[in-house]
Protein backbone atom coordinates (compact mmCIF):
# COMPACT_ATOMS: atom_id res chain seq x y z
CA UNK A 1 0.00 0.00 0.00
CA UNK A 2 2.83 2.38 0.83
CA UNK A 3 4.53 1.69 -2.51
CA UNK A 4 1.26 2.34 -4.29
CA UNK A 5 0.83 5.56 -2.36
CA UNK A 6 4.37 6.68 -3.18
CA UNK A 7 3.93 5.82 -6.86
CA UNK A 8 0.61 7.69 -6.92
CA UNK A 9 2.13 10.72 -5.23
CA UNK A 10 5.06 10.76 -7.66
CA UNK A 11 2.70 10.52 -10.62
CA UNK A 12 0.64 13.43 -9.26
CA UNK A 13 3.75 15.55 -8.71
CA UNK A 14 5.04 14.82 -12.22
CA UNK A 15 1.66 15.72 -13.69
CA UNK A 16 1.61 18.98 -11.74
CA UNK A 17 5.14 19.85 -12.83
CA UNK A 18 4.29 19.06 -16.45
CA UNK A 19 1.24 21.28 -16.25
CA UNK A 20 3.31 24.16 -14.90
CA UNK A 21 5.93 23.71 -17.59
CA UNK A 22 3.31 23.67 -20.35
CA UNK A 23 1.20 26.51 -18.95
CA UNK A 24 1.12 29.39 -21.42
CA UNK A 25 2.56 32.77 -20.48
CA UNK A 26 -0.25 35.32 -20.38
CA UNK A 27 0.20 38.73 -22.00
CA UNK A 28 -2.29 41.54 -21.31
CA UNK A 29 -2.98 43.44 -24.52
CA UNK A 30 -4.94 46.69 -24.58
CA UNK A 31 -6.77 47.33 -27.85
CA UNK A 32 -9.36 49.41 -29.65
CA UNK A 33 -9.80 46.90 -32.49
CA UNK A 34 -13.44 46.21 -33.25
CA UNK A 35 -14.81 43.46 -31.00
CA UNK A 36 -15.78 41.11 -33.82
CA UNK A 37 -12.17 40.62 -35.01
CA UNK A 38 -10.44 40.03 -31.66
CA UNK A 39 -10.99 36.26 -31.55
CA UNK A 40 -9.58 35.83 -35.06
CA UNK A 41 -6.36 37.69 -34.19
CA UNK A 42 -5.98 35.93 -30.85
CA UNK A 43 -6.50 32.46 -32.34
CA UNK A 44 -4.02 33.05 -35.16
CA UNK A 45 -1.35 34.40 -32.81
CA UNK A 46 -1.78 31.57 -30.29
CA UNK A 47 -1.65 28.95 -33.03
CA UNK A 48 1.76 30.29 -34.04
CA UNK A 49 2.81 30.87 -30.42
CA UNK A 50 1.21 28.10 -28.32
CA UNK A 51 3.27 29.03 -25.25
CA UNK A 52 1.72 32.51 -25.05
CA UNK A 53 -1.89 33.45 -24.32
CA UNK A 54 -3.36 36.86 -25.15
CA UNK A 55 -5.72 38.48 -22.66
CA UNK A 56 -7.52 41.30 -24.44
CA UNK A 57 -8.70 44.45 -22.67
CA UNK A 58 -10.84 46.29 -25.21
CA UNK A 59 -12.55 49.66 -25.35
CA UNK A 60 -12.94 52.52 -27.80
CA UNK A 61 -9.88 54.61 -28.64
CA UNK A 62 -10.59 57.57 -26.38
CA UNK A 63 -11.43 55.46 -23.36
CA UNK A 64 -8.47 53.14 -23.89
CA UNK A 65 -6.10 56.10 -24.27
CA UNK A 66 -7.41 57.64 -21.05
CA UNK A 67 -7.05 54.31 -19.25
CA UNK A 68 -3.42 53.94 -20.30
CA UNK A 69 -2.64 57.51 -19.21
CA UNK A 70 -4.36 56.95 -15.84
CA UNK A 71 -2.30 53.79 -15.28
CA UNK A 72 0.98 55.49 -16.19
CA UNK A 73 2.57 54.99 -12.76
CA UNK A 74 1.33 51.40 -12.49
CA UNK A 75 0.93 50.00 -16.02
CA UNK A 76 -1.43 47.05 -16.37
CA UNK A 77 -0.97 46.58 -20.13
CA UNK A 78 2.06 44.81 -21.56
CA UNK A 79 1.29 45.55 -25.20
CA UNK A 80 -0.94 48.08 -26.94
CA UNK A 81 -2.14 46.64 -30.24
CA UNK A 82 -4.73 48.28 -32.47
CA UNK A 83 -4.75 51.86 -31.15
CA UNK A 84 -4.68 55.05 -33.22
CA UNK A 85 -1.29 56.46 -34.15
CA UNK A 86 -2.12 59.83 -32.57
CA UNK A 87 -2.82 58.08 -29.26
CA UNK A 88 0.39 56.10 -29.60
CA UNK A 89 2.34 59.33 -30.18
CA UNK A 90 0.88 60.72 -26.96
CA UNK A 91 1.63 57.53 -25.02
CA UNK A 92 5.22 57.65 -26.22
CA UNK A 93 5.54 61.30 -25.19
CA UNK A 94 4.26 60.36 -21.72
CA UNK A 95 6.85 57.59 -21.42
CA UNK A 96 4.28 54.77 -21.44
CA UNK A 97 5.52 53.09 -24.63
CA UNK A 98 9.02 51.61 -24.73
CA UNK A 99 11.33 52.08 -27.69
CA UNK A 100 11.56 48.74 -29.47
CA UNK A 101 12.67 47.55 -32.90
CA UNK A 102 10.56 44.53 -33.88
CA UNK A 103 11.67 41.74 -36.15
CA UNK A 104 10.56 42.39 -39.74
CA UNK A 105 10.55 46.19 -39.51
CA UNK A 106 12.14 46.51 -42.97
CA UNK A 107 9.00 44.96 -44.49
CA UNK A 108 6.70 47.78 -43.30
CA UNK A 109 5.50 50.96 -44.98
CA UNK A 110 7.43 53.66 -43.11
CA UNK A 111 4.69 56.28 -43.41
CA UNK A 112 2.42 54.31 -41.07
CA UNK A 113 5.06 54.09 -38.31
CA UNK A 114 6.35 56.35 -35.54
CA UNK A 115 8.16 59.12 -37.49
CA UNK A 116 10.42 60.08 -34.58
CA UNK A 117 13.77 58.65 -33.54
CA UNK A 118 13.82 55.76 -31.04
CA UNK A 119 10.68 54.37 -32.65
CA UNK A 120 8.04 52.99 -30.29
CA UNK A 121 4.98 52.24 -32.44
CA UNK A 122 4.33 50.63 -35.81
CA UNK A 123 1.32 50.75 -38.13
CA UNK A 124 -0.77 47.61 -38.57
CA UNK A 125 -3.22 49.22 -40.97
CA UNK A 126 -4.67 52.54 -42.04
CA UNK A 127 -8.33 53.29 -41.54
CA UNK A 128 -10.44 55.96 -43.18
CA UNK A 129 -13.64 57.84 -42.59
CA UNK A 130 -16.57 58.02 -44.96
CA UNK A 131 -20.21 59.03 -45.09
CA UNK A 132 -22.58 56.05 -44.92
CA UNK A 133 -25.74 57.10 -46.78
CA UNK A 134 -28.89 54.98 -46.63
CA UNK A 135 -30.42 55.28 -50.08
CA UNK A 136 -33.82 53.84 -49.10
CA UNK A 137 -34.28 56.19 -46.12
CA UNK A 138 -33.05 59.08 -48.25
CA UNK A 139 -35.68 58.35 -50.89
CA UNK A 140 -38.40 58.07 -48.24
CA UNK A 141 -37.32 61.35 -46.62
CA UNK A 142 -36.56 63.10 -49.94
CA UNK A 143 -32.94 63.70 -48.97
CA UNK A 144 -30.40 64.50 -51.70
CA UNK A 145 -27.09 62.65 -51.83
CA UNK A 146 -24.35 64.71 -50.11
CA UNK A 147 -21.06 65.05 -51.97
CA UNK A 148 -19.10 67.36 -49.65
CA UNK A 149 -18.74 68.07 -45.94
CA UNK A 150 -20.43 71.44 -46.49
CA UNK A 151 -23.50 69.67 -47.87
CA UNK A 152 -24.09 68.08 -44.46
CA UNK A 153 -24.75 71.51 -42.91
CA UNK A 154 -27.78 72.12 -45.15
CA UNK A 155 -31.11 72.35 -43.26
CA UNK A 156 -32.55 69.42 -45.21
CA UNK A 157 -30.38 67.03 -43.16
CA UNK A 158 -31.49 68.27 -39.74
CA UNK A 159 -31.96 65.32 -37.37
CA UNK A 160 -30.72 62.79 -39.94
CA UNK A 161 -26.98 62.55 -39.09
CA UNK A 162 -25.04 60.53 -36.51
CA UNK A 163 -21.30 60.72 -35.92
CA UNK A 164 -18.88 59.41 -33.28
CA UNK A 165 -18.05 61.40 -30.16
CA UNK A 166 -14.33 62.22 -30.62
CA UNK A 167 -13.69 61.98 -26.88
CA UNK A 168 -14.50 58.27 -26.90
CA UNK A 169 -13.92 57.28 -30.52
CA UNK A 170 -10.73 57.52 -32.55
CA UNK A 171 -12.85 57.56 -35.70
CA UNK A 172 -14.58 60.68 -34.44
CA UNK A 173 -11.37 62.34 -33.28
CA UNK A 174 -9.54 61.82 -36.56
CA UNK A 175 -12.36 63.51 -38.50
CA UNK A 176 -12.48 66.44 -36.08
CA UNK A 177 -8.69 66.72 -36.45
CA UNK A 178 -8.97 66.57 -40.24
CA UNK A 179 -11.48 69.43 -40.25
CA UNK A 180 -9.32 71.56 -37.94
CA UNK A 181 -6.06 70.84 -39.71
CA UNK A 182 -7.40 71.33 -43.23
CA UNK A 183 -9.95 74.12 -42.68
CA UNK A 184 -8.00 75.96 -39.99
CA UNK A 185 -9.12 76.25 -36.38
CA UNK A 186 -11.66 79.08 -36.75
CA UNK A 187 -13.34 77.69 -39.86
CA UNK A 188 -13.15 74.14 -38.49
CA UNK A 189 -14.97 74.98 -35.26
CA UNK A 190 -17.51 77.09 -37.17
CA UNK A 191 -18.14 74.15 -39.50
CA UNK A 192 -18.69 71.77 -36.58
CA UNK A 193 -21.12 74.25 -34.99
CA UNK A 194 -23.18 74.29 -38.19
CA UNK A 195 -23.01 70.50 -38.50
CA UNK A 196 -24.11 70.13 -34.86
CA UNK A 197 -27.48 71.65 -35.78
CA UNK A 198 -28.14 68.63 -38.01
CA UNK A 199 -26.74 65.94 -35.69
CA UNK A 200 -29.33 63.74 -34.01
CA UNK A 201 -26.75 62.13 -31.69
CA UNK A 202 -23.07 61.33 -31.16
CA UNK A 203 -22.14 57.69 -30.56
CA UNK A 204 -19.32 56.21 -28.47
CA UNK A 205 -18.27 53.79 -31.20
CA UNK A 206 -16.63 54.65 -34.50
CA UNK A 207 -18.53 52.02 -36.47
CA UNK A 208 -21.95 52.58 -34.87
CA UNK A 209 -23.10 55.54 -37.01
CA UNK A 210 -22.61 53.43 -40.14
CA UNK A 211 -24.36 50.47 -38.54
CA UNK A 212 -27.28 52.74 -37.62
CA UNK A 213 -27.38 54.09 -41.17
CA UNK A 214 -27.31 50.56 -42.54
CA UNK A 215 -30.29 49.64 -40.32
CA UNK A 216 -32.21 52.77 -41.30
CA UNK A 217 -32.10 54.32 -37.82
CA UNK A 218 -30.51 57.40 -39.38
CA UNK A 219 -30.06 58.40 -43.00
CA UNK A 220 -26.41 59.40 -42.64
CA UNK A 221 -23.58 58.13 -40.48
CA UNK A 222 -20.13 59.73 -40.42
CA UNK A 223 -18.16 56.60 -39.70
CA UNK A 224 -15.58 54.04 -40.80
CA UNK A 225 -15.22 53.41 -44.53
CA UNK A 226 -14.34 49.77 -43.87
CA UNK A 227 -17.55 49.21 -41.90
CA UNK A 228 -19.58 50.85 -44.66
CA UNK A 229 -17.98 48.60 -47.27
CA UNK A 230 -18.62 45.50 -45.18
CA UNK A 231 -22.26 46.36 -44.53
CA UNK A 232 -22.86 47.17 -48.19
CA UNK A 233 -21.34 43.83 -49.20
CA UNK A 234 -23.71 42.16 -46.74
CA UNK A 235 -26.65 43.82 -48.48
CA UNK A 236 -27.26 47.06 -46.58
CA UNK A 237 -28.71 49.80 -48.86
CA UNK A 238 -25.70 52.06 -48.37
CA UNK A 239 -23.73 54.38 -50.58
CA UNK A 240 -20.25 54.85 -49.08
CA UNK A 241 -19.29 58.44 -49.90
CA UNK A 242 -15.81 59.93 -49.51
CA UNK A 243 -15.80 63.73 -49.71
CA UNK A 244 -12.47 65.51 -50.10
CA UNK A 245 -10.69 65.86 -46.76
CA UNK A 246 -11.66 62.56 -45.15
CA UNK A 247 -9.92 61.80 -41.88
CA UNK A 248 -7.59 58.83 -41.71
CA UNK A 249 -5.07 57.35 -39.33
CA UNK A 250 -2.91 54.31 -38.75
CA UNK A 251 -3.79 51.67 -36.19
CA UNK A 252 -0.61 50.68 -34.45
CA UNK A 253 1.19 48.40 -32.00
CA UNK A 254 3.66 49.24 -29.24
CA UNK A 255 5.40 47.78 -26.20
CA UNK A 256 4.54 48.81 -22.62
CA UNK A 257 6.47 46.17 -20.66
CA UNK A 258 9.73 44.89 -22.05
CA UNK A 259 9.29 41.11 -21.62
CA UNK A 260 10.19 38.44 -24.16
CA UNK A 261 6.57 37.34 -24.45
CA UNK A 262 5.34 40.90 -25.01
CA UNK A 263 8.04 41.42 -27.65
CA UNK A 264 6.84 38.32 -29.48
CA UNK A 265 3.30 39.71 -29.58
CA UNK A 266 4.62 42.92 -31.16
CA UNK A 267 6.81 40.97 -33.61
CA UNK A 268 3.91 38.79 -34.72
CA UNK A 269 1.53 41.75 -35.03
CA UNK A 270 3.65 43.25 -37.84
CA UNK A 271 4.26 39.91 -39.56
CA UNK A 272 2.96 39.01 -43.00
CA UNK A 273 0.66 36.45 -41.37
CA UNK A 274 -0.97 39.12 -39.21
CA UNK A 275 -1.23 41.58 -42.09
CA UNK A 276 -3.05 38.95 -44.16
CA UNK A 277 -5.73 39.10 -41.48
CA UNK A 278 -5.81 42.92 -41.33
CA UNK A 279 -6.27 43.16 -45.09
CA UNK A 280 -9.53 41.22 -44.87
CA UNK A 281 -11.04 44.41 -43.43
CA UNK A 282 -8.58 47.18 -44.21
CA UNK A 283 -7.33 47.69 -47.79
CA UNK A 284 -4.22 49.56 -46.62
CA UNK A 285 -1.98 47.58 -44.24
CA UNK A 286 1.52 47.94 -42.85
CA UNK A 287 3.28 45.10 -44.65
CA UNK A 288 4.64 45.91 -48.10
CA UNK A 289 3.92 42.43 -49.49
CA UNK A 290 0.25 42.27 -48.47
CA UNK A 291 -2.39 43.81 -50.71
CA UNK A 292 -6.03 43.11 -51.42
CA UNK A 293 -9.12 44.64 -52.92
CA UNK A 294 -11.94 45.02 -50.39
CA UNK A 295 -15.38 44.77 -51.96
CA UNK A 296 -17.28 48.08 -52.06
CA UNK A 297 -14.44 49.99 -50.42
CA UNK A 298 -14.36 53.53 -51.84
CA UNK A 299 -11.39 55.08 -53.60
CA UNK A 300 -9.84 57.00 -50.71
CA UNK A 301 -6.37 57.91 -51.94
CA UNK A 302 -7.26 61.18 -53.65
CA UNK A 303 -9.67 62.24 -50.90
CA UNK A 304 -7.38 61.86 -47.88
CA UNK A 305 -6.90 64.87 -45.63
CA UNK A 306 -3.36 65.94 -44.75
CA UNK A 307 -2.86 64.61 -41.23
CA UNK A 308 -0.22 65.53 -38.64
CA UNK A 309 -0.38 62.67 -36.12
CA UNK A 310 2.03 64.29 -33.66
CA UNK A 311 -0.18 67.38 -33.60
CA UNK A 312 -3.23 65.16 -33.12
CA UNK A 313 -1.58 63.67 -30.06
CA UNK A 314 -0.31 66.92 -28.51
CA UNK A 315 -3.57 68.84 -29.09
CA UNK A 316 -5.87 66.00 -28.11
CA UNK A 317 -6.79 67.15 -24.59
CA UNK A 318 -7.48 70.76 -25.61
CA UNK A 319 -9.46 69.79 -28.71
CA UNK A 320 -11.59 67.28 -26.83
CA UNK A 321 -12.32 69.72 -24.00
CA UNK A 322 -13.45 72.36 -26.48
CA UNK A 323 -15.52 69.84 -28.42
CA UNK A 324 -17.15 68.44 -25.26
CA UNK A 325 -18.00 71.91 -23.94
CA UNK A 326 -19.70 72.77 -27.22
CA UNK A 327 -21.35 69.56 -28.38
CA UNK A 328 -21.44 66.79 -25.78
CA UNK A 329 -25.07 67.45 -24.93
CA UNK A 330 -26.18 65.32 -27.89
CA UNK A 331 -24.03 62.31 -27.00
CA UNK A 332 -25.68 58.95 -26.39
CA UNK A 333 -25.61 57.66 -22.82
CA UNK A 334 -22.61 55.40 -22.13
TrEMBL record:
One of its GO terms (cellular component) is outer membrane-bounded periplasmic space. Keywords: Signal. GO terms for molecular function: thiamine binding; thiamine pyrophosphate binding. GO terms for biological process: thiamine transport. It comes from the Bacteria. Residues 1-23 form the signal peptide. Pfam families: SBP_bac_6. InterPro entries: ABC_2-AEP-bd (IPR017663), Ferric-bd (IPR026045). PANTHER family: ABC TRANSPORTER SUBSTRATE-BINDING PROTEIN, THIAMINE-BINDING PERIPLASMIC PROTEIN-RELATED. This is Putative ABC transporter substrate-binding protein. It comes from Vibrio ezurae NBRC 102218.
Amino acid sequence: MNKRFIKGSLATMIAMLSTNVLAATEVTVYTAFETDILAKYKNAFEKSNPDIKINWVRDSTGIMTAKLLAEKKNPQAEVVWGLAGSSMALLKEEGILKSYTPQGLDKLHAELNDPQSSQAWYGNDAFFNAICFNEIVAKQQNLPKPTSWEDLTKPVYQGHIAMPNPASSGTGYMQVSAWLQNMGDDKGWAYMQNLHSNITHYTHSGSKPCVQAGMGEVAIGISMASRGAKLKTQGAPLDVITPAGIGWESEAVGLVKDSKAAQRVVDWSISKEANELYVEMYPVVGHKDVKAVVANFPNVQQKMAKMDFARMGSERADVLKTWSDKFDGKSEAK
